[in-house]
Amino acid sequence: MDRQGFGAAVRHLREGTAPAAVGLPAGRRRVRGLRREELGELAGMSADYVRRLEQGRSHPSAGVVNALARALRVGRADYERLCALAGYAAADGQVPTDLGRGATRLLERFPDTPMIVSDAAMNVVAVNSAFLALEHWDLTGDRWEWNVAWRTFCDPFDAFKQSAADADDHEAVLVARLRSSVLRYPADAPLAALVDDLRTRSRPFDTLWRAPRPVAAYESSATFTQSDGGSVTLVGNLLALPGDDLAAVVLTAAPGSDDEARLAELVAASEGRAVVEVGQEVGQEVGRAGPG
């Protein structure tokens, strides 16, 4: 339990919450956000208790954490952080898998940039048509065929190649993200099963799980080969989407390079919707795009 950290987080959220966002009139105010009295009334507790919590002088129960989160209408990531600071697991402990509005807008606004969105368990939630144009992701029928970590450690793509240094960085990021997710979602059975399977089937993953490497960079380079024999080298950057506990990998080519021209050709020839959610529809899109 980090009482000081919890108190600081509650104060930050309270001061950053607009009254209108929780159904209160704005009016003329001397302070930012909500008053302690207002938060207390919304959460069913006294203003003095809110003050003690923010000053780190009281240990909140799990019920108090949930009440504060509901009153402030926080997103999933902030809720998970409050729970962790208070020393509790989240109420349901399940990895959220919905494609949020922020992720959808990101995919829609960059139709010429290959992009995937994954959840905290590293399952791909959605891709865009530019990503499918790379002809990278083949379907195997395996339970974890859309899981980035599983495909990296247990079922690598033939059309995806990295240098040793880039592969090391990529693997370190995957393991770090999964270790963090297991701590945040201890009751998520599919996540636990995924990690167990990875540790059983992949010695490199198990070694990293027991002794993780520091994450040097949240980006790495890879070469994608298409069915016509051509290839394109792109750099993938990981962007966190904290409100829905999702992450996006954005793939870009060096400006002015042959890879940029090749990527533009691939994207121009691609078809399909800007946002394709994982499932039957994306399977059909992969089939149309060609072999991975």
How would you explain this protein's 3D organization?
It is a single chain. This protein has 292 residues and is α+β, with helices and mostly antiparallel strands. It has 2 domains: 3-86, lambda repressor-like DNA-binding domains (434 Repressor (Amino-terminal Domain), Orthogonal Bundle), CATH 1.10.260.40; 101-289, Beta-Lactamase (2-Layer Sandwich), CATH 3.30.450. The protein contains 13 helices and 7 strands. The chain has helices at residues 3-15, 36-43, 47-54, 62-72, 76-86, 101-109, 129-132, 148-153, 164-184, 189-201, 203-210, 258-269, 280-289, and strands at residues 115-118, 124-127, 160-161, 219-225, 231-241, 246-252, 276-277. It has a 7-stranded antiparallel β-sheet with strand order 3-4-5-6-1-2-7, with helices on both faces. A hairpin with a 5-residue loop joins strand 1 and strand 2 (124-127). The model is unreliable at 280-284 and 286-292 (pLDDT under 50).
Largest sheet: 7 strands, antiparallel
Number of helices: 13
Number of strands: 7
- Category from helices, strands and their pairing: alpha+beta
Fold-level CATH name of the largest domain:
Beta-Lactamase
- Whole-number count of domains: 2
Q: How many angstroms does the end-to-end distance come to?
A: 47 Å
**In what order do the strands lie side by side in the largest sheet?**
3-4-5-6-1-2-7
Radius of gyration: 22 Å
Indicate the percent of residues in helices: 40-55%
Topology pattern, helix = H, strand = E: HHHHHHEEHHEHHHEEEHEH
Shape: globular
